[in-house]
Write a structure and sequence with these properties.
The complex is a heterodimer.
Chain A (H helix, E strand, L loop, with lengths): L4 E3 L2 E5 L4 E6 L6 E7 L5 E8 L4 E4 L2 E6 L4 E6 L8 E8 L11 E6 L1
Parallel strand pairs in A: 2-10
Antiparallel strand pairs in A: 1-3, 3-8, 4-5, 4-9, 6-7, 7-8, 9-10
Chain B lengths: L3 E4 L2 E4 L5 E7 L5 E7 L5 E8 L2 E5 L6 E7 L2 E6 L8 E8 L8 E3 L3 E5 L1
Parallel strand pairs in B: 2-11
Antiparallel strand pairs in B: 1-3, 3-8, 4-5, 4-9, 5-6, 7-8, 9-10, 9-11
The chains are: A mainly beta, B mainly beta.
Amino acid sequence: SQQGEEDPQALSIQEGENATMNCSYKTSINNLQWYRQNSGRGLVHLILIRSNEREKHSGRLRVTLDTSKKSSSLLITASRAADTASYFCAPGGGSEKLVFGKGMKLTVNP
Amino acid sequence: DTAVSQTPKYLVTQMGNDKSIKCEQNLGHDTMYWYKQDSKKFLKIMFSYNNKELIINETVPNRFSPKSPDKAHLNLHINSLELGDSAVYFCASSQVSGGDTEAFFGQGTRLTVV
């Protein structure tokens, strides 16, 4: 598997605003996963989108995938202070590795 | 019930010591991983085991030796600890290997070498 690159590396917003983070990757994938890491905790799986899907929703999360641009975005709507965390993407190419990018730090100010 | 549990949560030890971190998963998964997260939060894969067999060893010094007595357990033993080994170590498991299924992570072991 390959490492995704999250962008921006850090984002600070006010509660109630939407947060968008992007992930780019280099080679073809079977799927792409997004994870959240709260400070001092392990990663928690948020959503998996397959290469034949363009968009997927889960609660306040919306993930899009554009395989032609080799990119994915994670949108968190109506953000809350509890959404403050680091977010990681993991492009899945069918190899045996689950590899993460450097992550993106989201701060939601109350 | 905790799905993936690691012990200990914190470990402070002196340089040169040998220490172990234990990991257990009760999800019935075939694949388990060890990751190292440094101070810059970069999460790097170290090892991956599938059904007790080592399938990935990512250029990790041989002072690090994983052991999988059964597919529910993957322990990490570190010999001759160095200052640079200070990090948070995460254990994870998934139903199958690779990026095709969701991975579940333990809460991490914060290792501090002094």
